[in-house]
Amino acid sequence: MSERIEVADKVEDFALPDETGTTRKLTELLAEGPVVLFFYPAALTPGCTAEACHFRDLAAEFAAVGAHPVGISGDSVERQQEFAGKHTLGMPLLSDADGAIRERFGVKRGFTLAPTKRVTYVIAEDRTVLEVVRSELRMNTHADRALSALRAHRG
């Protein structure tokens, strides 16, 4: 059984390719401010599209608190690129094709059709988790609660 990462835990650094095939490290992403890492089951599906587009639509609000959303799923780099382009997402979408990071965060699901749970982590610059949002069905909850946590953190 994989670990579950909770609020106040420290996240280990990791590196994954983004939708352009560029390797992105968590510590490098955090150098620009807190990261809202949202795991989603599958690119281009209705739920994930709604969720990612809500993050996109709140880009100015995230920028105002110095944070930036980063999507992550088991989709291939090519599929992430198609997803980002089709919806002009404007944020990194990481490809966790072998599921190693999904496993490390404890968001792996038993069945294979959608092996990644829909969970969002708000991660401070020092890799401490500020908030965890777990909701499979309320797509907008992820970005909304992440923003609330970031605003509270900035105080």
Automatic annotation (TrEMBL):
One of its GO terms (cellular component) is cytoplasm. It catalyses: a hydroperoxide + [thioredoxin]-dithiol = an alcohol + [thioredoxin]-disulfide + H2O. Its EC number is 1.11.1.24. CDD domains: PRX_BCP. Residues 5-155 form the Thioredoxin domain. GO terms for biological process: cell redox homeostasis; cellular response to oxidative stress. GO terms for molecular function: thioredoxin peroxidase activity. It comes from the Bacteria. Keywords: Antioxidant, Disulfide bond, Oxidoreductase, Peroxidase, Redox-active center. Monomer. Belongs to the peroxiredoxin family. BCP/PrxQ subfamily. Thiol-specific peroxidase that catalyzes the reduction of hydrogen peroxide and organic hydroperoxides to water and alcohols, respectively. Plays a role in cell protection against oxidative stress by detoxifying peroxides and as sensor of hydrogen peroxide-mediated signaling events. This is thioredoxin-dependent peroxiredoxin. It comes from Streptomyces diastatochromogenes.
